[in-house]
Amino acid sequence: MKRRTGNLLTDRPDLYEARFPDPDRLAGRWAEDLLGRYGAGPAVLDLGCGTGRDAAFLHGAGRRVTAADLSGTMLAHARTHHPGPVYEQADLSRFDFGQRVFDAVVCLDSSLLYCHTNEQLDGFLASCRRTLVPGGLLVAEMRNGAYFLGRDEPPAAPAVSCFTWQGTTYRSTTALHIDRAAQLLRRTRGWTADDGGPPVEEHSAWRLLLPQELRHFLTVHGFDVLALYDGPGPRTEPAWQPGAVPGTAADGDRIHLVARKSARRSVTRSAG
Asked: How many degrees, rounded to 5, is the angle at CA 144 between CA 143 and CA 148?
């Protein structure tokens, strides 16, 4: 049977939500808690919004939300199933919303790490600074590059998982590879389903940023880091709960970031 390339879950947003359910909207609640804790205004830009669940939660919490993603399929799903925010297509590494400005930018679930190169990360942070009001916030959560780069190669045996949705069982086989030269965590995932469809092979990668490296990029682009810690967060174990106090260490497998746009101008572009 011919194998096709693509991304099964981003091509099927309904399947994505079935595979990664978030019935308590933990990620959205975590983001809203930090926005409130650090005094962000009501206008929020959610970058890499995916299916729109978190953006819709922030909208329901009283925020004026614009949500952006590169995937037109995800955006179509979001508009139908998670109405409220204004949904727009945009590239994280070079977005421009014209004269519109925001009190906060939210970037969840490692979306920032799709900026693979220094130039792309420069573009992301320059765009964030341009679109934020003075004193505006950047809130993000992502994988911690120090956790992966400081460890041995992931296990050679691929991880296997399966789940059933609407009568169809989906099975995935996932292999990870640390590309240290490029500072990328590369993933190859194969999907099969018992509905007779062709297998799907996915190739994804995330930039592995070290905490101090991330601080440097933010400083260069005119941001003051208010918090940079490993937990608790929406994808840590144990997970964040209301009232939890942000930690101080940054050596776990996730990084949580709060930065404020400084009154000073950005210093210079980082080295490419």
From this structure: 100
Q: Which of 107, 119, 87 is nearest to 46 (CA)?
A: 107
Q: Averaged over 141-166, what is the pLDDT? A: 87
CB atoms within 10 A of CB 183: 20
Please report where in the chains the tokens 């994988």 appear, as a residue.
143
Distance between CA atoms of 112 and 120, rounded to whole angstroms?
Answer: 10
pLDDT tens digit string along 125-136? 999 999 999 999
In the prediction, which pLDDT does 197 show?
87
Please list the residue range(s) of the chain that carry CATH number 3.30.1300.30.
Answer: 148-206
pLDDT reported for residue 155: 64
Which residues, at least 6 apart from 120, have a Cβ–Cβ distance to it below 8 Å?
92, 93
211: enclosing H helix or E strand: helix 211-220
Fold of 148-206: Pantoate--beta-alanine Ligase; Chain: A,domain 2 (3.30.1300)
